[in-house]
DNA sequence: TTTTCTGCAAACGATTTGCATACAC
DNA sequence: GTGTATGCAAATCGTTTGCAGAAAA
């Protein structure tokens, strides 16, 4: 079963790599825990923390996001809106990756999610044919969301 | 059968939209025809044209790339290397999209391609469940390419 | 105490924009 | 001729970096 990351998980992963547990790294993770399921940019995180009266330098936000992605707690995403976004990974003890794809509406820009693990067979196929050892995949679908379709019918 | 775009295709698509056929737009398309299968950035295209003694402003390259993508001749790609890249679409008269996925080596940064049209069933599934009308998809696989695996074994 | 981290401000690089001129139609 | 496109340079915006001081281990 997929679970959420805790501060303890963060501490453990940092210690394993001789990295330090700092309040800044904690509050960046906290922002994602408080905004579960959202795709936050560095500016988003900075604003969320600022609103919560938690001061942090923007450069530190950038550094923390990259670090949290490197140690597997966050996933870096590119939706083509001019900035990198991140989402919380699932903390799955069985090491099974839990995948969802992103549905990007080309009209209103909304990003929805769709759960699916159907690409594993495709990955096996690619490895067999190309010798490419796959660690991860990202799938983006572009189209028009239900709401925009309904608006367009008027 | 998938075919290449020609200058006539470009002219036709421009005229359909009251846009003008200019030498700059032609040479940008020509750069992609001469570098079939490559993923070119704005700087790449600018350099290719400059090497061919074809002067063009960098801003015009950016504007042409965006325009060619909008009229369906190019496909915009994001590989997370800090710049947008474009590749030539296939000009398929039967309107069947011809898909390939990108395999990105996280070690050497090389981008390979893998032909596959297996996501159509997944698209139908998404449309049925979410009412999202899909126009296109992009799939990126991250992993280690064959060569980097062999180097790592030493 | 030693090493790493933070915050600030400056630097950076890709991309966009304003505007006068040039060109396609 | 009319409206659009180009080229240039300046502006913009997300992101990175150098460095001195602060904090974790």
From the 3D structure, determine the CATH topology of the largest domain in chain A. Arc Repressor Mutant, subunit A
Described by its quaternary structure, the protein is homodimer
CATH architecture of the largest domain in chain A: Orthogonal Bundle
- The strands making up the biggest β-sheet of chain A line up spatially as 1-3-2
The CATH class of the largest domain in chain A = Mainly Alpha
Order of helices and strands of chain A: HHEHHEEEEHEH
Give the percentage of residues in beta strands of chain A. 15-25%
Condensed summary:
Chain A is of the alpha+beta class and 154 residues long.
Overview of this structure, please?
The structure is a homodimer of 154-residue chains. The first copy, chain A, has 2 domains: 1-90, Winged helix-like DNA-binding domain superfamily/Winged helix DNA-binding domain (Arc Repressor Mutant, subunit A); 98-154, Ferric-uptake regulator, C-terminal dimerisarion domain (Dna Ligase, domain 1, 2-Layer Sandwich), CATH 3.30.1490.190. Chain A has helices at 7-16, 23-34, 42-51, 58-70, 120-130, 146-152; strands at 40-41, 74-78, 84-88, 100-105, 111-115, 133-144. In chain A, the strands form 2 sheets. A 3-stranded antiparallel beta sheet of chain A has the order 1-3-2. Chain A has 154 residues and is of the alpha+beta class. In chain A, helix 2 (23-34) packs across helix 3, helix 2 (23-34) packs across helix 4 (58-70) and helix 3 packs across helix 4 (58-70). The radius of gyration of chain A is 18 Å and the shape is globular. Strand 6 of chain A pairs antiparallel with strand 6 of chain B, so a sheet runs across the interface. Chain A binds a DNA duplex (25 and 25 nucleotides) through residues 18-25, 41-43, 56-60, 62-63, 82-84.
């Amino acid at each position: 079963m997929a679970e959420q990351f805790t501060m303890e998980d963060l501490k453990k992963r940092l210690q394993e790599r001789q990295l330090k547990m700092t309040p800044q790294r904690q509050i960046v993770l906290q922002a994602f825990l408080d905004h579960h399921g959202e795709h936050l940019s560095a500016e988003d995180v900075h604003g969320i923390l600022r609103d919560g009266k938690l001061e942090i330098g923007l450069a530190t936000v950038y550094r923390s996001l990259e670090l949290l992605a490197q140690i597997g707690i966050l996933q870096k995403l590119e939706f083509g809106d001019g900035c990198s976004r991140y989402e919380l990974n699932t903390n799955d003890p069985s090491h099974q990756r839990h995948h969802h794809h992103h549905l990007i509406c080309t009209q209103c820009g909304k990003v929805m999610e769709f759960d699916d693990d159907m690409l594993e067979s495709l990955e096996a196929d690619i490895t067999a044919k190309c010798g490419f050892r796959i660690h991860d995949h990202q799938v983006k679908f572009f189209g028009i969301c239900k709401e925009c379709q309904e608006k367009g019918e008027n």
